[in-house]
Amino acid sequence: MQIYWTKINKIIEETPEVKTYLLDCPKDFTWEEGSHTHFALKGFNAGDKPNRSLIRHMSISSLPHENAIGITTRIREQCSEFKSILRNLEVGNEVAIFKTHSNLPLKREDKNVYLLSSGVGLATFRPLVLEYFERADNVNQIHSLNIDSSKAFLFTNIFKSAPDKKFNAQFTDNRKDYYEEVKNLAADKDGLFYVVGSDDFLVQNIAVLREHGIKSEQIMLDKRENELPKFFIN
What we know:
By secondary structure, the protein is of the alpha/beta class. The chain is built from 4 helices and 11 strands; from the N terminus they run βββββαββαββαβαβ.
């Protein structure tokens, strides 16, 4: 397993609770849209066994042509040891990335694509939307729906409706409106539905989609293949 040590070159405060850490791209490090990586802090591999409290599984919120690896995360006032250390890191500090993989590449099957996310889960979809804007081949259109109770919505410069690009972006701050809209979107029985958020959020969305006639194979999750069965039990 190759561990890439790299430096933070910029920290962007997206909202009062959400930051994006832009990391230098190590030589020969590549990724595609929908990728996640293991993001680790100094000292994680100092002992005999990795210190798992200093490692997190994070989505990459940028594309390679942006020349930086974007890690976007929410850091609340009361937070874990990992987030507490991360909050105090500065430009120039070193972090590690390893085991990078994509579960959510943009499928080009001449269908409508629906991106369903909760809060900072939108960061996973940012590269998919940018990839679609760069090359819309074999994607009919994309519709993004995000719920964030804080109302501090992310990436609104990218997630804004653009009819000329066949892209629609919706934000809601409450579950009732969110799930009503999911039911409306599920009227497209041929669509592809990408879902990103907490495990509970995934389970609830899958239940609503399947109840409205969407098949399991039309639902994409940011999970490894061996993790999928627990979300599609029936």
